[in-house]
Amino acid sequence: xxxxxxxxxxxxxxxxxxxxxxxxxxxxxxxxxxxxxxxxxxxxxxxxxxxxxxxxxxxxxxxxxxxxxxxxxxxxxxxxxxxxxxxxxxxxxxxxxxxxxxxxxxxxxxxxxxxxxxxxxxxxxxxxxxxxxxxxxxxxxxxxxxxxxxxxxxxxxxxxxxxxxxxxxxxxxxxxxxxxxxxxxxxxxxxxxxxxxxxxxxxxxxxxxxxxxxxxxxxxxxxxxxxxxxxxxxxxxxxxxxxxxxxxxxxxxxxxxxxxxxxxxxxxxxxxxxxxxxxxxxxxxxxxxxxxxxxxxxxxxxxxxxxxxxxxxxxxxxxxxx
Length: 322
Description:
Layout lengths: L6 H19 L7 H20 L3 H4 L3 H34 L4 H9 L7 H13 L5 H28 L10 H4 L1 H12 L6 H16 L6 H24 L7 H7 L1 H7 L1 H10 L5 H21 L4 H8 L3 H5 L2
């Protein structure tokens, strides 16, 4: 008998992917307003939840087998999206300043806009692969990655301006978000029984204090980390306690979060070709197109071997039916 799917985690993933979409559609700075509030927590949570589902038996298979398992589950769908979005980026570069080696290298080190998340997950799994067998190493790297998260959140711009070579190590989110992924992994690995209400006051206090704290200071960065780490613990604890019997739209979004994440930016780009940015027609068109895309991904899941293989990361279902 197959294990019953935990819909509460699908609900959480669906809610997070909805926030990702809203954050990408909303106008304005990623540091202020509703968009700034979403950017404050949505990706640390997403990576923390991803880390929560990484298990030791998965890591025990070794790097080669992990990459084989991820080949169709994540890598192939990512590469398809990478090619499409990179072609668009190169086209835009050709229209403006022309294509150079720097442009191509930049796309490899800094994948287009939202695409950084998939390579980050694979990189974080590899990080964890080297330390998961040693409890001391796990604790040490959790501490060090926490320090790196706080430090880089505070001083990212200053460090990159001062040390230009840092730009060549790739997207910094490949490094400073690891603490949340590792925290999620450790919570699951230790089978920690979390009481969500214990973290609620910490989340509220850190959120309020952060609002009134000057940006780009260590206090601000520390509060950002405390808020996100506590919120992650609280939500994971809630998901473990809540048992959903019926799915809904957000649950279904969580179940197809990979293709939604990879492709929700495409309608925004297409609408930008027809309508002036930040106009009512642009937002109406983008929201409508994204909604249609989400509905298609929900309805078409499991209907086509091609779609399941190259978009959903679920090719294994077809292979198991042979």
